[in-house]
Design brief:
Chain lengths: ~350, ~350
């Protein structure tokens, strides 16, 4: 039976359990470092603009999936955000996959979609985008998500962004990606089931309860606006992890309304800009976690996880699935909250 | 319903499901590379021997947990393998932890053990060890495991090894680590449950069935001796992943007999040496997966997973738990099998 206790002894690690997935993380206070110890070399890397395939995303054989142009008041012309099929896809369009046997094993064809969201400007990163540009990027995420979710074979759509080689980016020109999958990913399934279980027990959305607790506790909140809130999770998987939630309950990313794009864009850009300034341009990933379809898992609550590459996951993490973070999320939040970006 | 099919079309990815954990991996054949494309810069990194804390592991305040000396016939003197407590532990010895509440969250103190297995020689890596040295290292793993598993609060013992900075090593001097945990790690629990489910359905150990299938299929086996077998898993999480299994059924690492140490040592060293030679000293991790206690989860089958850092896990992998490998495990196995190391 769990009892209340404020804090552990100095130098003793804390094992914290994610109440949605059930996963554990270690906050290794005995190895804790000051926020400034995480400042490293910039993750942005050079690639000649002359060879960049994203300078003219309309040169590929297939037509773009989406194209948004600048508007009159923008003092710029032509395309601002383009969505195109990935020319080296991990998943390809095809007929709904069958499941095959290979001895005791099971496999299916990688039928799905792999798309790229390209913003204008070879070295214009998330934090450099104008409000029109970042809002249009978010609008493009939603528009593609909404179009694809209706396709038959698709079980889950993952939207993500990699910045820096350490975070897996191979093309320097800033871009986000979308992969539509023919299976429900195991990590997502676990969280969906976890939120379902919590709902059955408590009659409430677990993430709504978490957000309400964070608002009350105050100490992990980094940023909020009218519609979105960003905080360092109690169970941070890595130093300076940030999660961004819509304040009102929405199970699926597909439920975000047009009038909220700007609020989401501002929250996302603010968090990236704070990490960029505070940690000197760290490599990072962000991704959206969402209920797979609008009316399934109504008790889930979509959100974004931002994961700066402040550590390497080694043998222990891979052998157990337990991740070690070397800063208290409360200290990371305090540091990021203070960073002024404008 | 799954049906049989030999192979997918060229350029189409395969989604393969792990029949123990239920997890999916992507073998992205459309992005496939030749084995030689994975050859990179050596992962071994320099640190002055004069400052190396592992040159004399007996200088720390606490006495060593284990010390094995060279034997007469070895032409060397003094210690060969030492086990000492980690001076910067992620888990610390203490009373059995209670579980505490913090608002909606649950946490416990990081009570456990964190130990280091140090082999003699600042630049003597796994592949360079003599048969006596590598066998003694394996013996030390088992001896510490056996001693700790009896301790009350310990729910799981993870033994692992990190080589190279990209794989999370911070001290250059070769060493393995042991962490004893007060909780059962979620990834391990999932595999234990998966093997239990398979046993209930089929009356056999899932890993025994996998090994039998691999022996019959031949195409993924890299190495075997009288007691151990190593192969590229059908569901490789990363290019050139290798798993090493005892051929006869043993649920727990603690069940390995003294007479088998040498066979295990040879299998482990051979795989590391093949990766070292074939991929030019890649960074890697290996870890042991085992049933937590001797007589629990009798249907499980302990093994080692060797994970070379041939890719970076990015936003997609972190957002879904699905990993993308860019070489067919069958091709990786063929390449590694051919590498001559002696």
């Amino acid at each position: 039976m769990a009892t209340k206790k404020k804090r552990t002894k100095k130098g003793i690690s804390e094992l914290r359990q994610d109440l949605v997935s059930g996963d554990w993380v270690v906050i290794a206070t005995g190895r804790a470092r000051k926020p400034h110890a995480f400042v490293g070399k910039p993750a942005a890397f050079g690639q000649p603009v002359s060879n960049c395939p994203f300078e003219n995303p309309f040169s590929v054989k297939e037509p773009p999936l989406l194209r948004y142009d600048y508007e009159k008041q923008d003092k710029k012309e032509g395309w601002a955000v383009a969505v195109v099929p990935n020319q080296f896809p991990a998943f390809t369009r095809g007929e709904c996959g069958e499941f095959y046997e290979n001895g005791p094993y099971k496999w299916t064809e990688g039928v799905g979609l792999h798309e790229l969201f390209i913003t204008r400007g070879h070295k214009k990163y998330i934090q450099d985008l104008s409000l029109f540009e970042i809002t249009t990027l978010v609008k493009a995420y939603k528009e593609r998500y909404h179009a694809i979710v209706k396709e038959g074979c698709v079980k889950y759509i993952s939207i993500f962004h990699n910045h820096g080689k350490e975070a897996g980016a191979s093309i320097a020109h800033p871009h986000s990606q979308l992969i539509a999958l023919p299976v429900l990913p195991p990590d997502v399934y676990k969280s969906l089931k976890g939120s379902e279980k919590y709902f059955e027990k408590n009659g409430r959305c677990v993430h709504c309860d978490i957000v309400a607790h964070e608002v009350k506790a105050k100490k992990r909140i980094i940023y909020e606006n009218k519609k979105f809130i960003a905080f360092a999770p109690f169970v941070s998987r890595i130093a300076f992890e940030v999660r961004i939630f819509p304040k009102s309950h929405q199970s699926s990313f597909d439920m975000m309304e047009d009038k909220d794009f700007q609020y989401f864009a501002e929250a996302l850009q603010t968090i990236i800009a704070k990490l960029h300034k505070g940690l000197n341009d760290p490599a990072f990933n962000f991704f959206i976690h969402t209920a797979p379809i609008k009316n399934s898992y109504h008790q889930y609550h979509w959100h974004v996880e931002v994961i700066p590459k402040t550590a390497v996951w080694a043998g222990f993490e891979m052998g157990t699935g337990i991740e070690i973070s070397t800063i208290m999320p409360e200290d990371a939040a305090k540091f990021l909250k203070k960073i002024k970006i404008k």
